[in-house]
Every structure is written in C-alpha cells, then in structure tokens.
Amino acid sequence: IPSSVTSIGDGAFEYCESLTSISIPSGVTSIEASAFAQSGLTSITIPSSATSIGTYAFYGCLGLTSVTIPSGVTSIGIYAFYGCTNLTSVKLESCKTEIGNKAFDNTAAYTNGNIVTSHSLTRVETQEATCTKAGNSEYFYCSECGGYFSDTAGVVPTSLSAVTIAATGHQNVTHFVANDPTCTEAGNIEYWYCSDCKCYFSDADCTQEITQAETITSALGHTLQHFEAVEAGCDTVGNVEYWYCGDCDTYFSDADATAEITLSQTVVAATGEHEYEVSAIVWNYEDGTATVKCLECGEYHTFDATVTSKNVLGQTTYTITTTINGTEYTDTKTTGTSLMMVQASYSAVTAAIEKANSLNPDDYENFSAVTDAINAVDWSLSVLNQKQVNSYAEAIEEAINNLVLAETVNITEETIEVIDPVEAGETDGE
After folding, report:
1. Please, which contacts does 296-299 make with residues 24 or more away whose CB atoms are closer than 8 Å?
2. Is the pLDDT of residue 424 over 70?
C-alpha cells in the first residue's frame, strides 16, 4: 500500500482469504468498515497514526491471534473484531479509546478475559436500591478516562444511568394511630413505619423521618389517693389501709403502687357483734320478744323470747327468757292476788267468842280455859291457814262445853264484863 494512502476504504480487502499479512503505511489514519472483514490475515500492525477503526473492520478474521490498538485510536466500531475466534490477545494502549458494541465479542481474548487495557479500573459492587437511595448493578469505573464498563477488562462500555437502580420508594408502610399513655404503659404519637427500610416517619408521605424513641409517649405514673384503715363496726363495713388511682381505677396495698388489689380486698366486713344495753331490755310478754339497744350503733334489735307461766296460790308468775350474744337473760312478773294476802274467815271464831261473852265467868270454876282459848287466837292468818283459824273456834267451843259450874253462885248487881270482839282484834273473813 503506497505511503500516500491515509485511509483504507470500506471493504477494501473484504473476503481476501489468501491475504495473510499486509503493511499499512504510517500515514493511514482510518481503517473503514469491513476493510479486512473475513480475510485470511494472521497478523496485523496498526500504525500509530490511526485514529479510528470502522465497524466490522476485521470481522471474522479467523487467522488473527493477537492485535495491539495504538493509543492514537479514539474509536473502535461495532463488531470490529467480532468472530475472530483465534484472537487470544488484545492490547489497548489507551484507556480513552471508545469501543463499540460487541467489538471483541466471540473472541478467545474476550472469552478468557485476556483483553488488556490501560484503564485504572475500580470495581463497584452491586448495591440494592432502598426506599430512598438508588442502588446500582456491578460496574467498573476508570479514574483516568472517567469511563464506566460492565466487564473487568474495561472493554464493554456502559453508563452511570445504565448501572443505576432507582430508589424503590416506601412500599410497605404501616400507619399507627396515636395511643394515649396510661399510668403504667407508654403510649405513642401517630406515625408511619416502613418495614423495608426500618424507618419511622411523622407524616403519611414519609418525608419527615423520626426515631423510634420519638414515637413513644412515656407512661404517666399513678395519681394516688391514700385511705387510712377504718375499723368495721357491728353493722358498718370498714376498710384496710389502701391507695387508689382514679386515672386507671386501680387499688393498691402499698404507697409505691406495686401490689395491686381488688376493691373487695379493701373492705372489712361488718362484725355483726352488737354490744347491747342488757340492763334496759324491753320485755314484751304478749309477743314473746325482747328488744334491746346496741350501745355502738344505737339501733334497737328485737329477739325472740320464751314465755312460761306458773300459778301459785291464786297468783300467776310469768317468766320470759331470751339469749343475746350467747348469754341468757330472764325477767318475771306476777299477776293476781296471792291467797297469802287474803285473810282467813274468822266468823266461827267470832261466834264462839260471842257465846263465851254471854256467860258469867264467876259461874264457872274453870272459865279461865275459855279465856285462854280466846287469847290464843292469831287474827293475822290468811285463807291458807283457814283450818287453823277454824281450830281456834273449835278450841273455844270445846272450852265452853267443858265449863264446870261453881258450887255457890252469888249473883250481884255488878254488870258482867262482855268481851268486845272488835277490841279483841277480831275481823270477819271473806
């Protein structure tokens, strides 16, 4: 090829299967499309003056085993060395050469990773996109040329936008309504939680991020009212000492509100044990009851009572009995008049005395016996002693009947003394 040639045109040596080698003048700046496609080249030296290699330029050159791309080449067209299956070594002297799509695909060098470039590559690992941050697929970045590549050799170019994975946005968000805190349990403000990024937000659009701690409202603590112990009465309930929180309606047995109890556990039942004023029991014989006042509560309580009666000598004695707090109490009353209070009948005695008074004592030798019988009378006896009273009359009658007349009787004008029964204390009985 003459030295005056500056460009090898399209398809200039395409299909030249017998062409195994060629010398390209140093003045050539471009090798156009399909210039040596499917030729028999086994080696090729690209001059340093070259600036571009066209598409399919060395396509299907099965004999090529190695190639060096000078640093002056700024672009390699698509499929430029595609199908050069025996091409085991490729060296690119510039990292700034723009390589077209699949320029070295289906070559041994590409397959074996034996394409050497001058890129200063940094591998960027795959990063999963998050709700708010974009991710990326794996790529390689050259710090010298600023290029992005999808292969380790820096042969397959890509772009930042192509490797970037857009942020997903908050997809799995749960809304939590506000809950007021209680005395013992914390509450929370209204918030939204994304389970994908594990973040908390104060707004539904998930633009205002907050911490989990900021979602929590602290427990309020108890507001306690203290109740002193009150002793139970006979019919009034008392209570143990306790504390009550009106906010949570809870009862506690301690001031620190750690020992919870129920309302029923604060109550001390009424004792039911009345202390009665037993000295002032009101007895009701007709109803068979006993009513008494409790000294503690002031109430009157009525108890059943048992009433019995006994008739003695005309008098009826009633006995009423009740039991209060285990102790038996009794009251009695008597009705009617006792026969012991009824005077015996002295009519027979009075008649006998009148008979004696009708006699002259001087006419009889033993009239003193009559006088003694009269003086022996007890005028205070009751009907219970009626038999004894009758015996007084019988004794007087017997004394009169046993009188013996005196041998000489001198009758004078002196008045014979007559015993007045009333003055003697005689009283007629009923």
Report:
1. 296/233, 296/234, 297/233, 297/234, 297/235, 297/236, 299/235, 299/274
2. no
